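Hi X.,

You mentioned you wanted examples for the new student's onboarding notes, showing what a folding record looks like when two proteins sit in one file. Here is a clean example. The first protein comes first, with its sequence line followed by its structure tokens.
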Amino acid sequence: MFQQTTFRVVSVLISPIVRLYINKRIANGLEDSSRKTERFGIPSKSRPDGSLIWIHAVSVGETISVLPLIDEFKKQNKNLHVLLTTTTLTAARMIEERCGTSVIHQFIPFDVSTWGRRFVKYWRPKAVFFVESELWPNILHILHEASIPAYMLNARVTSSTLKRMYMVQKIFKIAPYSLFRNVYVPTNAMRRHVQELGARDSIVIPNLKMLAPPLPVDEPQSKRLARKIGKRKVWIAVSTHLTEDNIIYAVHKKLKERHHDVLTILAIRHPARVADVIAACLNAGLTSACYTETITNAKQITEDIYILDKLGCLGNFFSVVDTVFVCGSLVPGIGGHNFLEPIKFSCNVATGEFIENFNDIYEHVAQWCKKLRSTGEITQFVLDSFANFSREARVAQPIDYESKWSEVVRSISEAVL
């Protein structure tokens, strides 16, 4: 009770600072100013009549991973409504493109007790799912008081976060997972951790990202892209971060020694930094062009670096480009990004060594995704792919995702409904 009151009081006291923080995020292009009030728990859409469940997914990867669960919920109950909340703009845009009106999207309110109470009172969910690592103490207490069951899906926590959780538990006697009805974890090791951190019931299930459908492909755009690339040797570095860009430029220069007309596609993780990437290419002595400025014209790509500066297009690129390197994995601290997406297109895929956010998935697909540790290894991987890789041969050896994981999704759905 003491901790609960403390969380509430502290959150109200710092709410003016949170408001300033939201304004800063808007100024940096990280929030939608027209939907700012959603972050205060004020809805921008009407609640439909009938049963509603609430699923919170932070960003794009988590959102994609729960799409099969949403489909299964709706198979179980055709009249069920789904409220899907996210934190990031990128996820909101992806939901709009891929889900349309099949779900209700809102941005989750910041964890100020009055904002959370307003949100829960308005939407009145039958059950709530938090995905992977989101712990909102005030909202969880509000749900508990209202007898609304909360579940954690795909509980995955970094080693540094685990250390902080254990420290908080030891000093303040707070059990982070104690307010969840069930905690679903992808590994036995994570199950042990969440139990020690207060989980009443925990179940090991495979990572739901394995069930996510392939990214959508716009066939006309995909064909236009193929024509613009022409016969050039091409590879794509996906979800690059600022700390990794120079490594990709170095690989490009090495490849250019063997293939003078090689094309490197840079799918930057955050399109807002496109101007910085263009400047960095110039400083590296490389020419560049942007997808958003060139895709609608007939001009072929002749530059060194082609910058994918728009979200929601990766399926088009994976359908055309055979060789894929997934970034967020070349330096410590990011944890890797989703290599399942290009694997599902039967691409030749590699990633870096720092993939702690995806280790539980990697063990299932290691034979389809190389783990590389240096500029030299990446260069050699791309050269070997240019010389030897056959997408047709890879297509002939598909990975069976559906039969292993669809029953898991059904069992979760039946348990909740």
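Then the second protein repeats the pattern, sequence line and then tokens:
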Amino acid sequence: MKLEKLSKGRFIKASIIVLVVISIFGVIFINRSKAKYRVTQSIQIVNGEVNYTNPDFSMLGVKLQSAKGSSDYVSASNNEVPASGYKLKPLGDSATDSYCTINGEKDNTGISITYENGTVTFKGIKKQGTRCYLFFDLQTDQTGTELLGKYTVNSTSEGCPNYEDAPSVTSVKSSKSLLCKGKDDFGDTYYFRGNPTNNWVKIGNFYWRIIRFNGNGSIRLIYSGNGKAETSGTGTQISTSAYHSQDNSANYVKYMNGSTDSTIKGVLDSWYNTNLKSTYGSKMDGSVGFCNDADNGTYSGGTQYFKPYDRIATNKKPTFKCGTPTTNLFTTSGGTKGNQKLTNPIGLITIDEVSFAGGLYDTANSGYYLYTNSAYWTMSPCYFNGGRARVFIVGSNGTLYPSNYVGDTLGVRPVINLKADTLFKTASEVDKGTADNPYIVQ
């Protein structure tokens, strides 16, 4: 084969082409090499997907707390990231903080780690040889929605009223603890009946009892003590007050009459502003409201009865639904129902709620959890006769009864609603929700 000698000009041209091609491939190779350290990749680690930015980041050390409050941590099998039930400890310098190393030296600089729904996400890892060691604490916090799931819902055969709009409640309930299902203006509600011992909640220094889980998922509570859990006496009340300073008009059974507050509303607002608003106001649900059902019921012999009287005293058919909610359901602004007249999301229990809990009209009952051996106000109008207005009370013997008049001085037990996503914890895993181990609002 005859070899042809390239001219000088052609040789130079060919050399330039070769150099250009080599340069292009070199740039591509370098950029691809750099890109693999820039692009976020992911690997699957049993129950959690770990995102990372360095393909040489191939080792995790996962340590799980052996018991709540313990300083002992055990290695997770196969470095398995827990799917739930744990809380990731942040990066830090203590012996049980999560941390990262670079070539064996602890270095958390620029790195952040988050953990949610069983997934650990890393950000800021830029150097080869980075390894991270994750410490997880047992997580006992739970939302109100999760809290409901911890209880067993009882049936009618076990003593719950029928699940319908206005079930008959014709007898008191004491001793036995039940969680029953009903209906309110927002959906299915779950309420305590009888004498539960596991419905205690602590907010700051104040103790409360869960009345029910509302249809929108929020949790309705009634005040039960400052500094300790109270079950009887005036310790279950924040103070005493008249319901209204006047009683010579049917309008004085109303929580608000136009723009005029009742006396008891002023007491509740003042207490809320002093004790709950600044620290816990963001956890309150004002949209579910408080029912002050002041619609007229039957009229007989010169007496104007209100609908709560007809339901509770005459028909014994309580309901969680509020008659004419546009006027009678007192809510804060921003909700989808109610009159949105409240500035503060605080009110009183209704006589219907007391009936579902175990009370009965004109019948003593010292065995259910709303009995306190001390009379206190509800929010439910009773009747107007002889030129004087009356509102229902829970009597000192646990009966449901009208007050003498709205001007009487009786106990005040605030009622509030906590949002469904409120977090709770307990001091111990044993006997949760009891007076000695209440659910503590976080």
